[in-house]
Amino acid sequence: MKVFVTGVCGQLGHDVMKELKKRGHTAIGSDLAPTAEIPLDITDAEAVNRVLQEQKPDAVIHCAAWTAVDAAEEEEEKVRAINAGGTRNIAKACRELGCKMLYISTDYVFDGQGETPWEPDCKAYAPLNVYGQTKLEGEQAVAELVEKFFVVRIAWVFGKNGNNFIKTMLNVGKKYDTLRVVKDQVGTPTYTLDLSRLLVDMVETEKYGYYHATNEGGYISWYEFACEIFRQAGYTTQVTPVTTAEYGLSKAARPFNSRLDKSKLVAAGFAPLPTWQDALGRYLKEIEE
Predict the structure, then answer these.
(1) Mean pLDDT of the chain
(2) CA-CA distance, 102 to 94, in Å (whole number)?
(3) Which residue of the set 131, 210, 223, 283 is catalytic?
(4) Which of 146, 186, 251, 280 is least crowded, fewest Cβ atoms below 10 Å from its Cβ?
(5) What is the model's pLDDT at position 250?
(6) Radius of gyration of the chain from Cα atoms?
């Protein structure tokens, strides 16, 4: 199978490319960076159409996105051009080719209220910030334009090839004896290495639709995640739990409830991801190498 991957310089795109090649698929990678195999600005509709018509993939895994949540609040036009407009450009090209499209979305499309896990086919969208709104607009473009599509919502992502919460905690934990971390935002982490295996599993099938995919191991707060990071890393850093209001630094509103219901994955015959505790241990070893 020939698979075109966007955003290959990011955490997830990087691991998806490795997984595709490991399985013997033809993987073509694109990114805005000039060092990418195919430099591509997804906001340029003509360029997107030309490149995909030249490559004629069987599937596109669309990982490229603006993901800087706080910065998005001050760059709404630019963020919408990438997350909504860029995704629409990819979707139009996929429709023309009649190929599969897998779009990576986020828990941020929901308002994060309550404690009930969000189901993948729930349509009670109410994003709290620019990032979530533009990712939702991307979802809607994919569903509108592509017949053979997967929308996979993920949360709390970490991988080797980029910045993430774990790297931040390790860096800050080296400098300070105590840290404050929010305790009232709850979800589950997602390791890109594990997720990439699932995404390739998906595009090898025709089990289209909306899915949620994070690691197993239960729902936790950012505070609990930080405590486990330091425990596994052997740090003595003390973590103080605080509310989002007490923490107070974010420009963008964050969802309190990022619990994603993943039962549809198992029902469709996909293997669930390992526990986040196990994933964290493997990740800490990976970044040491």
Answers:
(1) 95
(2) 10
(3) 131
(4) 251
(5) 80
(6) 18
Closest CA to 131 of 150, 145, 110, 115: 110
CATH code for 2-162+189-216+259-273?
3.40.50.720
Which band of pLDDT confidence, cut at 50, 70 and 90, is reported for residue 60? very high
Its pTM stands at: 0.95
Residue 4, amino acid: F
pLDDT at site 162? 82
* Residue linked to tokens 């569903």: 143
* DSSP 8-state symbol, 82: I
pLDDT score at 266: 94
Of all helices (H) and strands (E), which one includes residue 2? strand 2-6
Q: DSSP assignment of 257-281, as one string?
A: B--B--HHHHHTTPPPEEEHHHHHH
131 catalytic per annotation: yes
Q: Where are the domains of the chain?
A: 2-162+189-216+259-273
3-state secondary structure of 247: helix
